[in-house]
Amino acid sequence: xxxxxxxxxxxxxxxxxxxxxxxxxxxxxxxxxxxxxxxxxxxxxxxxxxxxxxxxxxxxxxxxxxxxxxxxxxxxxxxxxxxxxxxxxxxxxxxxxxxxxxxxxxxxxxxxxxxxxxxxxxxxxxxxxxxxxxxxxxxxxxxxxxxxxxxxxxxxxxxxxxxxxxxxxxxxxxxxxxxxxxxxxxxxxxxxxxxxxxxxxxxxxxxxxxxxxxxxxxxxxxxxxxxxxxxxxxxxxxxxxxxxxxxxxxxxxxxxxxxxxxxxxxxxxxxxxxxxxxxxxxxxxxxxxxxxxxx
Length: 295
Prior knowledge:
Elements: H1 30-38, E1 46-48, E2 53-55, E3 59-61, E4 72-74, E5 79-88, E6 95-100, E7 106-110, E8 119-127, E9 140-152, E10 158-160, E11 164-171, H2 191-206, H3 213-234, H4 243-265, H5 276-293
Parallel strand pairs: 2-10, 4-11
Antiparallel strand pairs: 1-7, 3-5, 5-8, 6-7, 6-9, 9-10, 9-11
Helix pairs in contact: 2-3, 2-5, 3-4, 4-5
């Protein structure tokens, strides 16, 4: 049904800025502006002005916003896979759209295989350049990322969905900086907090329907993967874990990513009974992590 593109780049992702900084001299939106200018996207990506975009109610993106969760910390040189689930009654989606902040031009990323499908997933890699933080204030920037599904309307005009918004912290400051403390998951490597968040994820997973692969894929990439990225960040800082534990957690993460990458490529074609394997794989990993944190 849909084609998922995996692009490994040197950098990263999507975000909201109202910089929670301790220095009032920091320009508003500095982190968002830097990302809009320097983000690394797949070949063929380009920016479009607002006047060339027309909102189209027949195109929708599935809400995967993280307003109620602690934002993940992302840093220069990091890479992430973006996954935007969409529906389009006219089967005309051709691009994914991304913008950092409420204003400015929107990046359009061409997605092979999207056109002709009335639903699917727009997947691409995006990265943050290694030197990005050297050009802006050394604080944690609270960034808002706007995600869209987009259809070509001929010429330089495009039809665009309403936005899905995700919050991420661009970590250009140390975790003990006032602008970073308690702001991002990546700055909290407390064993008890990580165990509690793992239990919350397990509860979320139990409420997902195995008959809805799109919902499952959206949860995995939008919620589980960012949480796991933060867990990997904390591995060396958790005294309760042995070297064997750390190796197991890292290896299992790679295996689970491979499983979901294959499954979510074909999410529109799989039988509901086949979805249980994906649910069980994540549940097994969460149980394994909890057993090691609480031993």
